[in-house]
Predict the structure.
Amino acid sequence: MDATALIAIDWGTTSARAYRQNASGRIVGERSAHLGIAQIRDGQFSSALATLLDDWAKDPAPRLACGMIGSRQGWAEAPYRECPVALDALAAGLTEVTGGRLAIVPGVTCLDSAAVPDVMRGEETQILGATLGVKRADATPYLVVLPGTHSKWAIVGDGRIEAFATYLTGELFAVLKEHSVLGRMMAATPAPRAASTQAFTRGVERGVAAKGKPASLLHDIFGARTLALFRELSETTTADYLSGLLIGSEIREGVAWASGRGVSADRVVLIGAPALVERYTVACALAGVVTVAGPADAAARGLWWIARHAGLVT
Amino acid sequence: MDATALIAIDWGTTSARAYRQNASGRIVGERSAHLGIAQIRDGQFSSALATLLDDWAKDPAPRLACGMIGSRQGWAEAPYRECPVALDALAAGLTEVTGGRLAIVPGVTCLDSAAVPDVMRGEETQILGATLGVKRADATPYLVVLPGTHSKWAIVGDGRIEAFATYLTGELFAVLKEHSVLGRMMAATPAPRAASTQAFTRGVERGVAAKGKPASLLHDIFGARTLALFRELSETTTADYLSGLLIGSEIREGVAWASGRGVSADRVVLIGAPALVERYTVACALAGVVTVAGPADAAARGLWWIARHAGLVT
C-alpha cells in the first residue's frame, strides 16, 4: 500500500468526500459519506470525520479540507479572502481546527456592481485544481463555470480569481419542481431522449433570449405552465423545458456579467459532475459559448497544491 | 331586503367569493368560502356552490362566475378568447354549466414575443370592472396591473385588452421563503416597520436595477442570502428584501414589456387586495412609475356589466 502524503477532504453542505493521496499527489483511495454540515447535529464534526475516514483515521498523514466545513455553521470559520485573490494566498490563509488535526481552506468573497456581497467555499479550491494545468495562448482572463445548486461564474487570470458571481439556478429548479404549480404538471417518469432534448433546447433558447425576444425570467417561468396547458409540452418534458430555461437564463446573465468586466465567453472551463457538465455543454453550445470540461477531480488537485504550498506536504 | 338581480361569483383556485347585487348593481350581500377549485374533490362543484351560497341557493336570480372555475380543471371549460379582445366580446362568450344554472365568463389568451402562450381567467373581468369608469384625457392605451401569485400586466385601450403578460412573482416568493436556503434565514416574526421598509426599499431598488447596475435575477436572489450572511439583513428583514427584489424585478420586466409595445408606464391602474396594492404602489413609486388604485370590488363590477350585456339581467 502506497504511503499516504495527504488526506484531502471536499466537505460540503450535503456530503463529504475524502481522498488519500500518495507522495506524488496521485489519488490512491477515495471514500464519501452523506455527512455534509447540514446532516451533522450539535457540532459532532469530530465523530463525523472519524466515520468518513474509517480506518484512515489512524493514518498520521496531514488532513486538509475545503468547502462549507469552513463556514460559520461548520467546524471552524475560515475567514474569507477578498477578490481579487491570488490562488497562492489560499495556501497562506489556512485555519486550524482546535484539537482536530484538520486545516481548512479559506472561502472567497467579492462585491457585485450593487455592492451586494457574494461568497464561495470549496469552489476556489476546484478552480485552482482545474486551472493549474491549463495552458492558454495568451494571458487574457477567462471564465470558469461551476454549475450546481448555487452555480459560480468566476473570472480567472494570472493565477488569481479576479471576481465571481453566484446564480441560484439549481436550487430554483428544485423548489419550482417540488413545490410550485409547475411541478404539478410534471410526471416522475422521464421523457424519451429525443423529446427531452427538444424541450430542453426550447427552454435554453428562451432563456438565452434571441434578439427581438427579450428575456423576462419571472414571465418566462410562467411559460412552462402555459406551454403544458396548451400541450406544447407534456408531463414528461415540462421539467426539461424549465431546466433549459433556467440554465439558458444563467448563461445569458453570466455572459453579460463577464462582458461588463471586459471578459468574453470563449473557451469557458466547466467543472462539475459529468451529467451536469454535459447539460451545460449542450446549453452553452446553443448560446454560442464554447466550453472545455475541467478535470473531475478538481477539488483533490486543488487541495494537493494548497497542501504543498502551505508546507503540509513536502 | 333588496330583491336580487344577480349573484356574481369570483371563483378562483384557492377561494370563492359571491356577491348579491340589486337591480342597480349595488352589492347588498357578500360571502366567501375556502372552496377554490383546488379544494373541490371529484367534481363536487354543485355542492360547493350550494355551500358557498347557503340560503341564497334558493334565490331564483341568475348566476354568473369568472375565474378558474372556467378552466379545464373547473366545472366547465369556458374557451379562451384571443387578444386583442374587445371587452364586449366577453359578454358574448359565456359558457353555461350543464344543469347547473351558472354561466361562466371566458378566459383570455395571447402569445408573447417568443410565441409562448399566456392565459388569464378572472382578471379580464376585474380589468373590465376597474376600467369602466376610468376617464382618460386621451385614447392612448394604458397599463392595468393585477399583483398576486401570478401577477398580470395588461395593456388596455379603446375598450379592449390589447395584450398581457404574467409574472410568477407571488408564487416564486412563497416557494423561496418556504422551501429554499433563503427561508432558513427568515424569522417568523415581522421586523419593526422602519427596518422592514428599509429592506423592502433596498430590494426594490436592486430589482429595478439602476443604470450601471444591471439586473441579474438568478444572481440577485442569492444576494438575499449573502446580505443576511454579512448581517446587512436580519432574520426579520430578509423576507422584506426578497419581496422587494421580486416586485422590483417584475416592475422592471413589465415596464420593458409595455415599452416594447409602445406603451409607457404612466398612470398605471393597480387592482388587488389593499395590502398588496399598497406594496406595489410603494415599489412603483421607487421605480418612477405613477399608479392609481382601482376599485376593490372590480370583479363584482365586471360581472355586473357582463351580465347586463349578455341579457342575464335587464
Q: What stands out?
A: Chain A has nine helices and 15 strands.
